[in-house]
Structures are given as structure tokens and as C-alpha cells.
Design a protein that fits this description.
Layout: H1 2-8, E1 15-18, E2 22-27, E3 30-35, H2 41-56, E4 64-70, E5 73-79, H3 86-92, H4 97-112, H5 122-132, H6 138-150, E6 156-158, E7 167-170, E8 173-176, E9 183-185, H7 187-198, H8 203-215, H9 221-225, H10 228-235, H11 244-252
Antiparallel strand pairs: 1-2, 2-3, 3-5, 4-5, 6-9, 7-8
Helix pairs in contact: 4-8, 5-6, 5-10, 7-8, 7-10, 10-11
Amino acid sequence: MTSRLNQAAIVLGRSIGSGKDADAFELGEAVVKLFKPEVPKHTAFREAASLAQAEAFGLPVPVVRDVRRIDGRWGVVMSRVEGPPFAESALAHPSDTAAYLKAMVLLHVRVHACEVTFFSGLKARLRTNIRRAAELDEERRSELLAELARLPDGDRLCHGDFHPWNVLGTIDRPSLIDWTSAARGSPAADVCRTYVLMKPSVPALAQAYVETYAGHSGESVEGIFAWLRVVAAARLADGVPHEVDGLLAMISSCHPER
């Protein structure tokens, strides 16, 4: 009886965002990230665990309050993050673009300062996705897997989906959302993933982001782009048709992009 009453008491508020795998709704003073029906239960619990660990590191993230099932969909209930995505703010205020990029970079560096153990390995995830990418023939796939094997494993917290649509708030108080892809790995790989995610929509900012990150960290631009081919190949498995040609061009490049 208690669970039925609790279920009946759940009233979703207005929609505040929608993505490929989940939708976000107001839930009283909180927010619930509600995954699509086909997304498995463990995804919600994995994101909740990642957020809890990020919070323990003192990172500016939503605070997890609950994991629950609503109308057949698993969701993470968390505190609300105020403010628009950095992407919207930077596009609306071009003169402040450099400041937004720097704030993003400083936040990313904070994430990468966290040494972690209880996260899945980023290289293992890249390897799995390269094997899943239908656009690769077996020769190219084997070549990329061998290239990935030579790259460092790393032991740092990697967000896995760090881009200006997942950084919300103001330049002086940014918050980082969407932790379903968090992993343990090399910061350079995580920054390269940011580049690959940003390039289709904001190519100039993607390049500037890599250069700004290199200027505020111990990484080099060359070290970041050493991951380009394998990160682009793994992105193919995400199933974003309009990005395929661009990703294949990155994979075919003989030298890091500059």
C-alpha cells in the first residue's frame, strides 16, 4: 500500500529538457531525469552513483536525492541547477565566448584532478564502441584497436560527455550535469571527446577549447589529438547519422588536426 501511495503522489511538472536517452522534468523543487523506457535500470543507478562520487569530490553537480521508477521509466531525482547552458550563453554573448571557454576548461581541469578507482575504464569503453561501429571495415577496425592499445590508460575522473550544453549556470558558478558516461581514464582522451562532440556544431570553438585546455593544464594539443582517430571511431557507435562523414574524415586523417 505504501509504495502505491508513493507512486500515486508523483506528479511530473513541466519539461525542462529532452535528449536521446532521457527527458528532464520538474518534480516539486527538484528535477527528475527520466530515462526512455528502453534504457535499462542500471543506467539510472550508474548515473546516481557517479553524481554521488562527483559530489564527494566537491565538484559542482546536482545532488542526488532518489532513484525511482515512474510510469515504467527509471529516473534520477536530483537538486535543480539554475541557469542556461554555456552554449546558449556564449552564442548570445559572443564577446564573452573566451570567458565561457576558460570557465569550462577550469571546471574540466577540476574534474581531471580527481584520481578514481571505482569507475569503469575509458579505454575499455572506447574499445567496445569501436568494435560496434558498423561503418568500419575489419582492417580499419583492427588498426584503430591497435592504436588504442598503445595509448595510456589513465586513472583520472573523465566525464565522458563534457560540452557546453552540459555545463549550466554562470561563468563564476558553473555546474556540470549528465554523468551517465563517467569513467576512469586519461584527461587527454576526455578533452578529445569534447572536441569531437563540439566540432559538428561549433568547429571554431572546438579547436579553441582544446587550445585553452592545453594552456591551463599539463596536457599538450598534440597529446590531446593523439586520441582523435580512436575517439572519433568510438563516436560512430553512438548512432548520430549527420556526424558520420565528419567522423570518418577524422579517422582518415594521418596527422592530428590543428
